[in-house]
Amino acid sequence: MAKNKQQKAKASKKKTWDLSPAPESTSHVQLKKKYELYIDGKWVKPTSGKYFPSINPGNEEKIADVAHADAKDVDKAVKAARKAYDNVWSKMSGKERGKYLFRIARMIQERAREFAVIESMDGGKPIRESRDVDVPLAANHFFYYAGWADKLEFAFPNRKVEALGVAGQIIPWNFPLLMAAWKIAPALATGNTIVIKPAETTSLTALKLAELIHEAGVPPGVVNVVTGFGDTGAEIVNHPDVNKVAFTGSTNVGKLIQNAIAGTKKKSTLELGGKSANIIFEDAPIDQAVEGIVNGIFFNQGHVCCAGSRLFVQEGVADQVIKKLKNRLDHLYIGDPLDKNTDVGAINSKEQLDTIRKYIEIGKNEGNDIYESSCNMPSKGYFCKPTLVLNVAQSSKLVQEEIFGPVLTVQTFRTVDEVIQKANNTPYGLAAGVWTDKGSKIFNLTGKLRAGVIWANTYNRFDPVSPFGGYKESGFGREGGLHGLEAYVKLA
Ligand code: NAP
Ligand code: MG
Known about the structure:
The chain has helices at residues 2-17, 71-89, 94-110, 112-123, 127-148, 152-155, 176-189, 204-215, 232-238, 251-261, 286-297, 315-330, 350-365, 397-400, 416-424, 439-448, 481-486; strands at 34-35, 37-39, 42-44, 51-56, 61-67, 161-163, 166-170, 193-197, 223-225, 244-248, 267-271, 277-280, 310-314, 369-372, 387-390, 407-413, 431-435, 453-456, 475-476, 489-491. By secondary structure, it is of the alpha/beta class.
């Protein structure tokens, strides 16, 4: 009898929540079968003649072949950037540079749908995210820095402002277009030229951006895009004629880069990993907080450097929050990244999926209480069920290490001091979230949490005006806002 009831409840839940597929059209998307390197305003073949496939993690199919740049190609790109810096870009007025940036921003807006679809195809994130977050924010970054280009003397009053020269920029796979915008816009606004490398698994939107920059009439050599993996990034870092290294990626690679440039005159900013705390107090608006927790870690498969991957719930509301969270997890839509209903898309690569699974296995072996969403799973593609790790110890690997997947550890706390101490007890310090009815509690915590960004009663909100960056092993330097300009200039 009880079993019958359960089956009925399951059937009715399915009925309420089953939505018809609503895939975004791909008919307007223009993709080449093969992408070359964008150097000195031209598409050039890689010296090695080698290409690698870019895969759609939502269906495991190849989208295009992408050129693999080696040391010779990187050298060509740096030389082109140096020539463009010396002859054109450093001599151009800020007002003129700004015009190019405004043009790029407007063209991204015009092609927003195409960029969003390619981002979701190549990287696996739900179209809702790429359409509503990544692409509009990328355009906004160009608009914002376009506005600064002719006002640098107001950004740094009474100082002489000079560009650094050639910037080598290396970006990760979780926000391919947005990270390219974060890097390119302030560098160009301040008069630098660029050699940029996207991540192996997500080169396509950076290459589309190169097409757009070309159409915008940006002079040859000002922006060069070299794709690749393995040594390609290291060749940029080690090139003697690069003046600034801007890196976003893992803490391990960040450390390698710091070692590589030690003792040189190269300037650097490193935006690295995170293990951010999302803290829910008893007086928080619980339903909003639960939605904020889900948004903070699950909507982007946990592929967010500042994901709220450690949940701290005050004891009095822990049972309530966990119950609501489990219910919400069971009703998430996981599947085709191009479907407008999808909440949780594909994991970016098979490699990353294996890493996440390894952590879940460690969690099980540690004896933690693991709760996996009961949502339907697609039969093809790299997908991972949203997962909660309950009753987990502060010392667990799952609490201490960045998993970069839809896995949320859940711990409880009693007092403010206790949660501050636990939240700060990781090697990272990128972001945090606080949910409470009391402004005084928020201000108390913001002063004591060692995190670069703290959100109050919301999570994962970004604005080009607001600087972003970390403490401790989350890196140094800030991107965004006025601070983001400073990273690309010499001040006298
Ligand atoms: P990753 O493995 O460190 O790779 C990042 C980039 O560095 C890729 O383009 C990579 O190329 C390149 N690279 C690899 N080895 C290199 C070397 N020795 N020298 C120079 N470049 C090298 O990171 P990921 O897995 O792509 O991205 C995820 C990480 O990024 C997470 O830790 C996340 O927290 C972090 N992240 C931080 C922020 C932030 O603002 N703090 C923002 C987004 C992401 P290949 O891919 O071709 O190997
Ligand atoms: Mg891909």
